Amino acid sequence: MSAPDAMPATMRRGAALVGLAMALCASCASKQAPPAAAPPSPAPSAAGSARALTRGECESLAQWILGACSDHANVGNTAQTEGFCGDVARHMTEDDRSFVTDCMAHVKLIDDTCFRSTTSVRKLMDCDAQVAR
Questions:
Q1: Is-above-0.90 flag for pTM?
Q2: Shared-domain flag, residues 27 and 50
Q3: 87 phi/psi in degrees, rounded to 5
Q4: Could you read off the pLDDT of 54-104 as tens digits, one per residue?
Q5: What domain range is 10 assigned to?
Q6: 20 and 57 share a domain?
Q7: What are the Cα distances from residue 63, in Å, to 5, 13, 84, 93?
Q8: SS3 helix, strand, coil % of the chain, rounded to 5?
Q9: Coil/strand/helix, residue 119
């Protein structure tokens, strides 16, 4: 009686009905709405992205820029990139911390995001050009 042909007709019909019921349940389940996805993380508010950087954030930004500038292959040895890197280095000496003062007055969180998105000196210069001074 292990072969399907050896089963009595009522058992075969019952097995067929169970199979049909299972197929219908699977079909119904696939048509249900998918589970709700996790809500996206909130975008930074305009006010938050317009916040000026703190002294510590400006000092960290200067180190980020100087790190990119120290990679001579990254600088490309053009007068513009060397001038930009030289200016940041000059304005971050112990005697002259004017980079930090200027940064605190003008660089916003959104600008910092631009700077931190790259280590290309040319692109860092583009970010610097976008700072509202």
A1: no
A2: no
A3: -65, -45
A4: 999 999 999 999 999 998 666 666 888 889 999 999 999 989 999 999 999
A5: 1-32
A6: no
A7: 81, 78, 14, 12
A8: 65, 0, 30
A9: coil
The answer to whether residues 72 and 102 belong to one domain is: yes
- Mark whether 51 and 110 lie in a shared domain: yes
| CB 124 within 8 Å of CB 115 | yes
Do 100 and 125 lie in a common domain? Answer: yes
pLDDT tens string 35-56: 344 444 445 566 678 999 999 9
Does residue 48 contact residue 109 with C-beta atoms inside 8 Å?
Answer: yes
> Could you tell me if 61 and 112 are in contact, meaning their C-beta atoms sit under 8 angstroms apart?
yes
Helix segments in 32-133, DSSP class H: 46-49, 55-70, 72-75, 79-90, 98-106, 109-116, 121-130
